[in-house]
Design goal:
The structure holds two protein chains of two kinds.
Chain A (H helix, E strand, L loop, with lengths): L1 H8 L2 H7 L4 H13 L1 H9 L1 H8 L18 H26 L4 H8 L18 H5 L11 H17 L2 H10 L7 H17 L29 H17 L16 E3 L2 E5 L3 H11 L7 H6 L2 E8 L2 E11 L2 E8 L8 H12 L14 H6 L1
Antiparallel strand pairs in A: 1-2, 2-3, 3-4, 4-5
Helix pairs in contact in A: 2-3, 3-4, 4-5, 6-7, 9-10, 9-11, 11-12, 12-13
Chain B lengths: L11 E6 L2 E7 L5 H7 L16 E2 L31 H16 L16 H15 L2 H7 L3
Helix pairs in contact in B: 2-3
The chains are: A alpha+beta, B alpha+beta.
Chain lengths: ~375, ~150
C-alpha cells in the first residue's frame, strides 16, 4: 500500500530528496520540498541549512552542568528568548528561501557558516552549533558517510568535554582510529580523561575539572602529538592511576564464587577497585563505575578470559539467595557471543545458593557445605 | 492491487477524493470510536485501539495535515525492535496485523493471564502467529503495508 500511495500521490522529487536524510527528519523535508522547488534545491546544495530551517532538530542547546541543577528564572528567560529568536530566524530564512535569496544570505539568517554545506544529508542531523562556532574543524572531516557519522559525533563531544584545542587534535586523529562508534568513542574517552587530568583547571570547558591522577601525568598533552603517542601516554596514565588506587574504597568483599575454568574459558572474580578499573579501561565499557554496587554486596563482577585474553565482563546480582546474570558484555559494550553466554549460564546453574550478606565461607569445604 | 472479496473491508486503505489518491490511512469503518458515537453509544475510554492518523502525501493536502514521523518508504515490519519501530508506517502495519488477529478469532489486545491458566499467553501468542499466517494469509497479502 505504501508503495502505491507514494507512487500515485507523492511528489517524486521531494520523496527522493527526503530519503537522503535520516528517518526522523524525512517527513519534514518532504513536506517542505513538495511545496517549493527552491527547498529541493536547498536540500541539494546545503542539507544542514535545509534541516535547520524545516526540521525540528535545530534547537537551542545549553552547555556544561546547566541540566544538573534546576534552572533559575534568569536561565529560563534566556532559553525562552533564545527559542523565540530561533523561531524568528526560521521564519526569516523561510521567506528568503521562497524569495530566491542568495544561499549566503539564508545561511546568515540562521547563523550557520557556509562551511557546513559540505556535510551530507544522511549525517546533516549530527551537525551542532560547536561546528557553527568552529567551522575550521570541518577541514578534517572524512568524505564517506559512515566515517563522517562517527566523526560528527565524537569531535563536538571532544570540544565540550575538554577544549577546542583537543577537538582540533581529535578532528585530525579520529579518522585514523578504526572500528565502530563505540570503539572510537571509548578510545577518545580514555585519551580525554588523561588530557583533562593534565590540564590546568581553568582551561577546561563546561564540566568541573578532574584533579584525580594529575600527579601521574608525566608528559601533558600537546596538539602536535601523534595518535600513537597520545594513546601510549594515556594507557600509561590509566595504569598508574589504577596501581595507586588505595584506601577503604578500593577493597571489595570476598568473591561470591571462586574462580573457575570451563573449557577454554576462565571466569575470574574482580577483587579490588584497581582490577575493576583496569577491566573497564581494557574493555572500553562502564564497569569501572560499578565499584560502589560491588562494595554494597548488590553485584559481583567477573572477568571472562579466553586463553588469557579478556573477552567479556560478567555482572552477577543476587535475589532470594540466588545469584543471577545481570549482564554480560564484550568489548565496547557489545553483546557477548552465544558460546560465552551459554558457558556462563552453565557455570552459574552449577553454583550453590549464596549465603546471607556479609557471611561468606572461607574454605572450599565451607563452600561445599553452603 | 489484488482484492479478495471474501476478506472483508480493509483496515488500512488508500485515501481518495475527487482529484484522485491523496494518502493512506485507516478506513472509516475501523474507527470504532467514531462508529460508536454515530450510533449514539458512548464507549468507555480506551475501549478501542486508537487508530493511527492518516498519512497525507499529495502536496495540496500537506498544509492542512500534521507530520507523523513517516519514513516514506516500504518497511520491514513484524519485529518489536528495529529501525522502523517508531515510524508512522509501522503503526499502520501494526493496525493491519491486529485486525488480522481479530479476524482469526484471536482477540487483540489478548485477554489478561489469570493465575490458573499457566502459560496461556505463550500458547496464545504461538497460535496467533500460526493462525494469522494461515487464516489471514490472503488478507495480509492484499493489505500489507510492506
Amino acid at each position: 500500500l505504501i508503495g502505491a500511495a507514494l507512487e500515485a500521490a507523492a511528489d517524486a522529487d521531494a520523496v527522493k530528496a527526503a530519503r537522503r536524510f535520516a528517518f526522523a527528519h524525512r517527513e519534514n523535508i518532504y513536506r517542505a520540498g513538495a511545496l517549493s522547488r527552491r527547498v529541493l534545491q536547498l536540500t541539494e546544495t546545503f542539507p544542514v541549512l535545509a534541516l535547520a530551517i524545516y526540521g525540528e532538530h535545530w534547537k537551542v542547546r545549553t552547555y556544561g552542568a546547566r541540566n544538573a541543577e534546576p534552572l533559575s528564572s534568569h536561565e529560563r528567560l534566556w532559553i525562552w528568548d533564545a527559542e523565540e529568536d530561533l523561531r524568528l530566524r526560521k521564519s526569516e530564512a523561510i521567506k528568503l528561501v521562497v524569495a530566491g535569496a542568495r544561499l549566503r544570505d539564508v545561511a546568515g539568517a540562521m547563523g550557520i557558516p557556509m562551511a557546513l554545506r559540505h556535510i551530507r544529508p544522511g549525517v546533516a542531523h549530527l551537525a551542532t552549533e560547536v561546528l557553527c562556532r568552529h567551522p575550521e574543524l570541518l577541514r578534517a572531516m572524512p568524505d564517506t558517510v559512515p566515517s563522517s557519522r562517527i566523526w560528527l559525533r565524537v569531535v563536538p563531544w571532544a570540544h565540550n568535554r575538554v577544549s577546542t584545542e583537543f577537538a582540533e587534535w581529535a578532528a585530525r586523529q579520529v579518522p585514523q582510529i578504526p572500528g565502530s562508534l563505540n570503539h572510537v568513542g571509548g578510545v577518545l574517552g580514555d585519551i580525554a580523561d588523561w588530557v583533562r587530568a593534565g590540564m590546568p583547571p581553568n582551561s577546561l570547558l563546561g564540566e568541573r575539572p578532574i584533579q584525580a591522577g594529575r600527579q601521574f601525568v608525566v608528559r601533558p598533552f600537546t596538539p602536535s602529538m601523534s595518535l600513537k603517542t597520545a594513546m601510549t601516554l594515556s594507557a600509561d596514565w590509566h595504569e598508574a592511576v589504577a596501581n595507586n588506587l588505595d584506601g577503604p574504597n578500593s577493597s571489595f568483599p570476598d568473591p561470591w564464587y571462586p574462580p573457575a575454568r570451563l573449557g577454554d574459558y576462565e571466569i575470574l572474580p574482580i577483587e579490588d577497585a584497581a582490577s575493576l578499573y583496569r577491566e573497564g579501561t581494557a574493555m572500553h565499557h562502564c564497569v569501572g563505575t560499578y565499584g560502589d554496587a560491588v562494595q554494597r554486596g548488590d553485584l559481583y563482577i567477573y572477568s571472562i578470559r579466553h586463553n588469557g585474553d579478556r573477552v567479556a565482563t560478567l555482572a552477577l546480582g543476587r535475589h532470594n539467595g540466588r545469584a543471577y546474570l545481570v549482564q554480560i558484555r564484550g568489548p565496547c559494550n557489545t553483546d557477548s557471543p552465544k558460546p560465552i553466554v551459554a558457558t556462563v549460564q552453565r557455570w552459574l546453574c552449577a553454583q550453590k545458593p549464596l549465603p546471607p550478606r556479609g557471611v561468606l565461607p572461607a574454605t572450599d569445604a565451607e563452600w561445599s557445605a553452603a | 492491487m489484488k482484492c479478495d472479496p471474501e476478506a472483508g473491508p480493509m483496515p488500512v486503505e488508500l485515501l481518495r477524493d475527487g482529484r484522485g489518491l491523496y494518502g493512506i490511512g485507516v478506513s472509516d469503518l475501523f474507527d470504532f470510536e467514531a462508529v460508536a458515537w454515530s450510533c449514539g453509544i458512548e464507549p468507555e475510554p480506551y475501549t478501542f485501539e486508537r487508530p493511527p492518523g492518516s498519512l497525507i502525501l499529495r502536496p495540496d493536502g500537506l498544509p492542512d495535515s500534521t507530520p507523523r514521523g513517516a519514513v516514506l518508504q516500504k518497511i520491514a515490519g513484524g519485529f518489536r525492535r528495529g529501525p522502523f519501530m517508531r515510524t508512522h508506517e509501522e503503526q499502520l502495519r501494526r493496525f493491519i496485523h491486529h485486525e488480522a488477529l481479530n479476524r482469526a478469532a484471536l482477540l487483540w489486545p489478548p485477554p489478561q493471564d489469570s493465575p490458573s491458566d499457566g502459560g496461556l499467553r505463550t500458547r496464545y501468542s504461538r497460535y496467533a502467529i500460526a493462525a494469522s499466517i494461515t487464516v489471514c494469509d490472503n488478507f495480509l497479502s492484499t493489505s500489507s503495508i510492506t
